Amino acid sequence: MLGLMGTNDYLDDLGNLHVVGEVHNDLPYNVDHIRLRITFYDEKGNALEESASSPLLDLLVPGQRTPFVILWEDAGDWKRYSLRATGRATTDQPEEGLTVVHSYARLDDAGLYHVVGTVRNDGATTAYYVKVAVSLYDSLGRISNASFAYTEPSRVAPGMTASFDCPFDYYPYQAEHLVQVTH
User: Is-same-fold flag (2-90; 98-182)?
Assistant: First the structure.
């Protein structure tokens, strides 16, 4: 079973609703083709909007989690939502050898919060389009936002490093972050 570890929602300056959360692989095998389905309801329980999305990582091993962000543009007058996560068992394995060497957070002059760092390829083959998924957590350990970035350069040969910069414009009560890497 894929578990939902918690969600957070917020409205941006344009009135768009962002639902942020994490999916956890509680199964004893790897899972891919993960889909999230969300339904928004009004105060009477009528469905207002339904949407499907994918999390930021495509493949989860047992015990691994991945963040997700679902956006509803011009959100209506909703009162609650329900979420469901599904996936497919797979024998596929994650690419090995990509390591987050270090990461840190900083604010820029424009007020954006950046999680920046370095990824190293300890594997035997060149990695292309290395994706870094970043989760932000508040002081109580609840997810508050998530996003992703690609490394620069996008091609990381064995033994080489690449940098990443993942900016956020929403980062309430930011206390820590988690960086996961894939390609």
Answer: yes
